[in-house]
Design brief:
This protein is an alpha/beta fold and about 180 residues long. Helix content is about 45%, strand content about 15%. It has a 5-stranded parallel sheet with strand order 2-1-3-4-5.
Length: about 180
């Protein structure tokens, strides 16, 4: 095993089942960056590199990674296999592609046996995967919690601003 050195442990592990998943996972990195959350990433396949997966699970637990996002397509065993080996919260991000376009990945991530929980996201819901990870970090990080609060408030304002179009179209808009 390679020496991991004295680098500070990042908060989030973002694990991709394949390098080909990167375009669909990009929003995870962008969202974590927006919040200044620290993360590390790797390509680890539950089926093709199972030993590396076990090694990563052990390393993440030992170093104190706080939450893991596992993103994979097809028969997406990655998040579940990680969850089987750690007590860290694991977020499963099923990815589209293949003959049934992500339904296989969605079911593989969602239908975990009792005792091995994975927080299953929607297909390609990369932004939500990051936001859920941030909410977990926000439990013990006041800066992130406050930034999440602001983001939620801004989202409400954005909806209101966009809804103006109904009034502009002369429609009878209900007001609270
Ligand atoms: C899954 O198989 C990966 O997560 C990816 O979505 C899919 C195809 O992988 P590649 O053949 O492109 O490496 O395990």
């Amino acid at each position: 095993m390679k020496e991991e050195g004295s680098k500070a442990t990042p908060s989030v592990g973002v694990i991709l089942g394949s390098a080909s998943d990167l375009p669909k996972v990009r929003a995870v990195f962008e969202t974590l960056d927006l919040f200044g959350a620290s993360y590390e990433t790797a390509v680890i396949s539950a089926h093709r590199t199972p030993h590396m997966l076990a090694e990563y699970a052990e390393s993440a637990s030992r170093r104190g990674i706080k939450v893991i996002i596992g993103a994979a397509g097809l028969a997406a065993a990655l998040p579940g296999a990680l969850a089987a080996l750690v007590d860290i919260p694991v977020i499963g991000l099923p990815l589209s592609g293949g003959p049934v376009n992500g339904v296989d990945a969605l079911l593989s991530v969602a239908d975990m046996p009792p005792g091995v929980p994975v927080a299953a996201l929607g297909v390609d819901s990369a932004k939500n995967a990051a936001l859920l990870a941030l909410r977990i970090l926000g439990l013990s990080d006041e800066r992130i919690r406050l930034q999440l609060e602001k983001t939620r408030e801004q989202a409400a304002k954005d909806v209101e601003a966009k809804a103006k179009v109904l009034r502009e179209q002369g429609l009878p808009v209900w007001e609270p």
